[in-house]
Amino acid sequence: MTTTWITGAHGFIGRHLARHLQERGHTVCGIGHGAWPQEEARNWGLDYWLNGEIEASNLADLADRHGAPDTVFHLAGGSSVGLSMQYPLEDFRRSVETSARLFEWVRVNAPHTKIVCVSSAAVYGADHSGPIPETAPLSPYSPYGCHKAMMEMLCQSNIRNYGMRIAIVRLFSVYGAGLEKQLLWELCSKLRSNPGVVTLGGTGQELRDWIHISDVVRLLETLTTNQNSPLVVNGGTGAGVPVQEITKLVCSSWGQEARIEFSGQQRPGDPDVLVADVSLSRKFGFSPATSLGDGIEQVVSWFKTRIKY
Q: Residue 88 maps to which CATH number?
């Protein structure tokens, strides 16, 4: 039986990954921030949840309870461009310091462990007009993107200097039922409060690459089971969809014809185009299974069930 740790398991991706791996026979332990009753954590696939900092004493506690990990999925860290703009030091601590402590503990105590680090397309920065390959220069400009790039540098250093087994996934726009933030949540909330008009920032022509949570967890697992998986891989679909089109799809799934308006004001830290070149992930056998239309219908259905309106 494989022992797997997930840092940041309390978050949206972490809990879905925990359930996915538990269904495949893994013993799954999680660590990070969030008051999470053990019974609820078990319902999400975790054998044990530790609410605390990712530091040596807590990692040793996990190892004492369930043994050293065969695999660590490192999802802990900053998760918002906007919050990183407001609180850059806190974002640095969450993304960079946390990673350094995790890597050091694994290097000393479990050097054969495979680590899969979740990074972000934000490391690529702006000024892209089409799909971005993994070989593109990193040019982040939000604190969030800069700190993810620093985390990747720590990964590279530990690989070169200590031979650690680390893979990096640069996720693009992850979505799915249960995510209570970002664009789809915002759209559903606006339709709930004012069904006739939807007003958003930006121009509506910004391109994003949307990947469903069910495909994200499959990709993460694939990086631990496929011997030909690359060191760095984009987590996307390769399809760039304008925000305006996403808005129309949400309105259609909602069953509402709404007037869609855009302010023209772009949020700080948001580039115009973030679309993945997925040639590399296709080469090692991964392809998304959930269509954008189906995924959005799931989100809207969940929102209407979850939120009284």
A: 3.40.50.720
